[in-house]
Design goal:
Ser-Thr/Tyr_kinase_cat_dom; 0% strand; transmembrane receptor protein tyrosine kinase activity; RTK; mainly alpha
């Protein structure tokens, strides 16, 4: 894996972890099938801001 790809993967996985923490354990991407995930993300779709997540933490 390239260094750039590893950095992207780290940032993405950390953001999923934060989503799970702030949503108090909700499953991310519940409506997306695994085989559709890459195209979903390439289209610019992202996880919604959890209700418990302060705006200062949301970019």
């Amino acid at each position: 894996m390239s260094t750039l790809l590893l950095k992207f993967f780290f940032i993405w996985s950390f953001s999923v972890l934060l989503f799970e923490i702030f949503s108090l354990g909700d499953s991310p991407y519940q409506e997306i099938k695994p085989q559709e995930m890459i195209s979903y993300l390439e289209q610019g779709n992202r996880l919604p801001q959890p209700k418990q997540c302060p705006n200062e933490m949301w970019i």
